[in-house]
Design goal:
about 350 residues; mainly beta; Jelly Rolls; Immunoglobulin-like; six-stranded antiparallel beta sheet; 4 helices; about 5% helix; about 45% strand; elongated
Length: about 350
């Protein structure tokens, strides 16, 4: 398919063709990128984004129409006057995946349908919070992603933020870092690249809650006039936007999309959110007999999670207690009388930032 190089490239700028081939501008000509090393080509954790292909779907596949987490680790932010949003994970046909991306890893895409509102403060974006804001402090980073739209004339904005945590009196969140937007092609996925210099956090005041600070990568699809700077000027937009293969790495050039093992990608997501089932039954000899068990999480969690139960069915119990920790949880209950006693159901554990 046709591809046009930028008219006014900067020295060191890297572009990627629709087929995945990369070229770098050396001030005279386009050629193979010189900044890509053998280590950067490997699957060594250079991509700091979790669930970049939207394969991990512990919360389902949508549709999501309100503020909150959607695909694992991806958060939908939505403020509007009169607008609407509808996000989902869509399945790609094998032929579509092969033709559009030339990449066998493309199986699912994230779709967000935005209906423009009328408020100056309107904001429709989806984000991922990257643990430990110091991790990117003072560094040059490169964000790359595949995106397109269902209709012509739409743009997608990219923004970085720095959040200094909770508790005490932390510094104000720094927003609008490296904000810019990209013109999307109707029906044709393209890989876009943004190289951004992150500010140093050396003079920031951090919150007193340990582990609560983070950086944020955000993708804007609609914005009111008050958010022009943060969104890269995408404006109020209505349309269907698609994204896949998000990568954020330290360095000034985009490297090929990292392909970590699917099990490792799931484990990274389960550190922030996971689900499971509980089943505890026994024979109580009298009222107020106690039954208890301890269960280990599939993966240790980032922090002590908040747990909730669904579809719980109790038999002869007077009290139910679920006590979480980093590594797992303790379940206990007592009987109301002698006889068969127990409970079963499902649980969720959330330690998202």
């Amino acid at each position: 398919m046709a591809f046009d190089f930028p008219n006014s490239p900067t020295v060191g700028q890297v572009v990627t063709t629709p087929g995945g081939q990369q070229y770098q501008w050396d001030a005279v000509k386009w050629g193979p990128p010189t900044a890509v090393t053998a280590a950067q080509m490997g699957n060594v954790g250079r991509n700091l984004i979790h669930n970049p292909y939207f394969n991990v779907q512990q919360r389902g596949t949508g549709n999501w129409t309100t503020v909150g987490y959607t695909a694992d680790r991806w958060y939908l932010s939505f403020i509007t006057t009169g607008g609407a949003v509808n996000a989902a994970i869509n399945t790609l046909a094998a032929s579509t995946a092969g033709n559009a991306f030339a990449d066998e890893a493309a199986q699912y895409i994230f779709s967000i349908v935005a209906t423009a509102g009328t408020g100056a403060g309107d904001a429709t974006l989806f984000t991922q919070r990257i643990e430990n804001v110091r991790r990117l402090s003072g560094k040059t980073i490169t964000v790359s992603f595949w995106a397109w739209a269902a209709s012509a004339g739409l743009r997608m904005g990219v923004e970085l933020q720095q959040n200094f945590g909770t508790g005490g009196s932390p510094s104000t969140t720094v927003s609008g870092i490296g904000s810019q937007s990209f013109a999307l092609v109707s029906g044709t996925p393209q890989r876009f690249t943004a190289t951004i210099n992150m500010p140093s956090v050396s003079s920031a005041t951090f919150g007193t809650t340990a582990g609560s600070d983070y950086s944020v990568l955000g993708f804007w699809v609609s914005a009111g006039s008050s958010n022009t700077g943060r969104s890269g000027g995408v404006g109020q937009q209505s349309g269907n936007f698609f994204i896949w293969g998000v990568q954020l790495e330290i360095g000034s050039a985009a490297t090929p999309l990292e392909k970590i093992d699917p099990g490792e990608d799931l484990r990274r997501c389960q550190r922030f959110y996971q689900t499971g089932n509980f089943n505890l039954f026994g024979q109580a000899g009298a009222a107020n007999a106690i039954l208890a068990q301890q269960t280990t999480f599939i993966a240790p969690m980032r922090a002590v999670p908040t747990m909730a139960t669904t579809s719980r069915t109790d038999t002869n119990i007077g009290s139910f207690s679920l006590q979480p920790a980093f590594q797992g949880y303790a379940l206990s209950l007592n009987s109301t009388a002698s006889g068969q006693t127990g409970t079963y159901g499902a649980w969720t554990a959330t330690a998202d930032l």
